[in-house]
Amino acid sequence: MLKYLINQSRVLLAGASLVTVFHGTCSVLLIAQISSALTATESERGTLALVFIATAVAVMLSYVSAAILFERLGQRAHAELRSFVARKVLAADYRNLETVGAARIQSALAEHCTHVAEFFVSFPIILMNAVIVAGCLLYMAWLSWQVFLLAILVVGLGCVGYHLAHLRAIRHLNIASEEQDKLFSYFRSLTDGAKELRLNNRKRKAFYEDVLSGSIETVRRERTFGMSVFVASGGWAQFLLYVFIGMVLFALVSDGPDRALVMTGYALVFVYMVGPLEALLLNIPRANLAKVSAERIEEITRAMTTQEIETDNSSLPGLQSLALRGVLHRYYHEQSDELFTLGPIDLDFRPGEITFLVGGNGSGKTTLAKLLVGLYPPEEGQIIFNGKAVDETNRDCYRQLFSTVFSDFHLFDRLLETDRVDLDNEGNRLLAKLHLQNKVKVQDGAFTTLALSQGQRKRLALVVAYLENRPFFIFDEWAADQDPVFKEVFYRELLPELRAMGKAVLVISHDDRYFHLADRLIRMESGCLTFNACPSLKDALHATPAPPLVLNGVT
Ligand SMILES: Nc1ncnc2c1ncn2[C@@H]1O[C@H](COP(=O)(O)OP(=O)(O)OP(=O)(O)O)[C@@H](O)[C@H]1O
Fold it and tell me: What separation, in Å, do the N-terminal and C-terminal C-alpha atoms of the chain show?
């Protein structure tokens, strides 16, 4: 991931790095000039002053240019990463997305992308200070070659120590990253479960103390440990530096004619070098954190795959026939080691036909709807659409056949599903039909508000589905949250209207008083079809009566 980003901006990165190297070199030259000026004669000072001013200006200009270039790189990397993850999420198979989970995706989009982008803040600091430290060492080598050899030894020892620490620290940073993914799901529970947490004080306390705090603490502990190991390795490097300084000052510099110049030079360089060295040791861990986050993004996005070919929407076919043949889907529940199997299912759908799908909770109605609309590719069997099997090459195109309102529907404030010119007028006409005209309007292709009751929001979702106007409509317990008057409108007006328009309609419903309005009734039990016929054959519907509900021994 980091390599990809670096590759994407290699020209800008190379330019910024060159400017940084130039800045580091000028900074070292500045120190060398200060050192020379301290022991310079009166006649040399004039020229030295001019060179000093020119170098100082170069240092300032190169610093500003490098900082701006790297800021641009960082922001660009951040934007690119966010787009990359968002595109991956949009293209991923729905099932893969369910497996990865919303929390990990949020974590990737929020924290991990930020950490990776910070690499472009750390990188110039590392590069700039590495150049300064290298320059200082070279300056020392020029003053005395023995010192240079010693410096090489110190750098070697520092590298070995750092590498060992690095391996340990990365392990802890990885654990922290994994825990952070869980933490994001707990953060969601803070807002999504706000009502439940307020209504049960024991639950609220337990959630905070046992779940949330534990997770926050794990991230803190692991990250602190990981970063501390890096800091400790920084301390080791600093210690080596002082050993190096001590050996140079007290053992290596002999009493010669240049002793004063050499000692002044060293004193200055040492003092100057400590700052860059510290910056270096502080920023290398940050770059490592970026690496860990980049690996995490890679892992998350790798799980979001697809083999499907995206449709261009130019020639969406109409519906002539649709058949499910031996279609089967399984859910595996890891915690309980249980498998839910839906199917094998054989079903036919025709235009202008209203099908009701009924059955107990958890019998597989929604799963069947997801299979039918192509959100889940069948594990076995086939969907035959207009005589052609649906596969990776045409599944995206096939999905464009459906307008749906699932029970966990999402409303976008903008009406993005269609580019029809009469969108506002048609939207407002439908809103009036569903008695929402005083609550919300469609204005410039967007709803004026979404702050409505659940039942009203479902009516908005119905408006959206109507505006999409696809050949096949699916409603998953749409009427469950509606007043009797809207149930009437839905079952007795809207559904017949859709039938008259030649739409195929699948209605998942528990409203048995409207079952007779369907052209066909399907019943599901434990993932299997147990009834598939005209609704007048009512007896078959009640083949398996539901067991009585028992609460604390009271029926
Ligand atoms: N994303 C999922 N991952 C794993 N198992 C799932 C998933 N969604 C549903 N299931 C399981 O599949 C079974 C059928 O669920 P489904 O939602 O299709 O039932 P349903 O008939 O629509 O129920 P309800 O009437 O309560 O909405 C359930 O046992 C459920 O535990």
Answer: 59
Q: What gap in Å lies between CA 184 and CA 180, rounded to an integer?
A: 6
What integer is the mean pLDDT of 183-187?
Answer: 86
* C-alpha 32 to ligand 1 mean position (Å): 73
Ligand 1 midpoint to CA 322 (Å): 24
Model ipTM?
A: 0.95
Residue 372 has pLDDT above 90, yes or no: yes
312 lies in a domain?
A: no
Is residue 552 very low, low, confident or very high in pLDDT (cuts 50, 70, 90)? very low
Give the mean model confidence (pLDDT) for residues 164-181.
Answer: 82
**Per residue in 304-333, pLDDT tens?**
777 777 776 666 678 888 999 999 999 877
Number of C-beta neighbours around residue 292 at 10 A: 21
- Same domain for 33 and 73: yes
Identify whether residues 256 and 401 lie together within a single domain.
no
Name the residue of 333, 367, 525 to mutate for ligand 1: max ligand atoms within 8 A of Cβ: 367
* 86 and 164 part of one domain: yes
The Cα–Cα gap between 57 and 107 comes to 43
290 and 378 in one domain?
no
Distance CA 473, CA 506 (A): 6
Look at ligand 1, atom 7, and give the residue with the nearest C-alpha: 331
Cis amide bond preceding 344, omega within 30:
yes
94 touches ligand 1 (CB under 6 Å):
no
What's the CA-to-centroid distance between 364 and ligand 1, angstroms? 6
Q: The pTM is what?
A: 0.72
User: Measured from the CB, is residue 527 less than 6 Å from ligand 1?
Assistant: no
CB 378 near ligand 1, within 6 Å: no
Residues 167 and 37 in one domain: yes
Closest CA to 82 of 56, 61, 45, 109: 109
State whether the beta carbon of 301 lies less than 6 angstroms from ligand 1: no
Instruction: Please report how many Cα atoms fall inside a 13 Å half-sphere around the Cα of residue 195, on the Cβ side.
Output: 1
Residue nearest (by alpha carbon) to ligand 1 atom 29: 362
Q: How many domains does the chain have?
A: 2
Q: pLDDT of 393-428, one tens digit each?
A: 888 889 989 999 998 888 887 877 667 777 888 889
Q: Are 292 and 329 members of one domain?
A: no
In a domain, 552, yes or no: no
- Going by pLDDT thresholds of 50, 70 and 90, the confidence category of residue 258 is low
Could you say which of 267, 302, 337 is where a domain stops?
302
Query: By three-state DSSP, how is residue 320 classified?
Result: coil
**Per-residue pLDDT, 154:** 73
Examine the domain organization and report whether 271 and 343 are in the same domain.
Answer: no
CA of 329 to the centre of ligand 1 (A): 11
With a 6 Å cutoff on the Cβ, whether 340 touches ligand 1 is: yes
User: For residue 364, which atom of ligand 1 is closest to its CA?
Assistant: 18
Distance in angstroms (rounded) separating the CA atoms of residues 518 and 496: 9
Task: Give the pLDDT confidence score for residue 110 in this predicted structure.
Answer: 79
Whether 182 is in the pocket of ligand 1, judged by its Cβ within 6 Å, is no
Residue nearest to atom 31 of ligand 1 (CA): 362
Q: Is residue 549 part of a domain?
A: no
Domain range for residue 537? 322-541
Find the CATH number of the domain harbouring 88: 1.20.1560.10
